[in-house]
Amino acid sequence: MNLIILGFAAGVMIAAAIFGLIIPAMENSARWGKLNFIPAVCGILLGSLFLVTLDKFIPHIHKNGKIEGPTN
């Protein structure tokens, strides 16, 4: 049951990201013509890079007990 709820929540978040962020970004960059997807793609890539950077530099413990990030 928990996996069903988790899958539903993931679907809702993906839909919110697409309909609330990505499509409006593409509409607002209509002056770019056929390349109106570039600002949205750049934003997704920069956000992903930011999250990966945070993951590397903030100490945390995974579920399996593996410690990751700086130890000091």
Descriptive report:
This protein has helices at residues 2-28, 38-57; strands at residues 60-61, 67-68. It is flat. With 72 residues, the chain is mainly alpha-helical. It is built from two helices and two strands, in the order ααββ. Strand 1 (60-61) and strand 2 (67-68) form a beta hairpin. Helices cover 65% and strands 6% of the residues. The protein has one domain. It has a two-stranded antiparallel sheet.
Q: Mean pLDDT across all residues, rounded?
A: 91
Low-confidence stretches: none
Radius of gyration: 17 Å
Order of helices and strands: HHEE
Helical run tally: 2
Secondary structure: helix percent: 55-70%
Strand order of the largest sheet: 1-2
Structure class: mainly alpha
How much β-strand is present in the residues? 5-15%
The beta-strand count equals: 2
Q: What's the number of structural domains?
A: 1
Shape: flat
The N- to C-terminal Cα distance equals 39 Å
Main β sheet profile: 2 strands, antiparallel
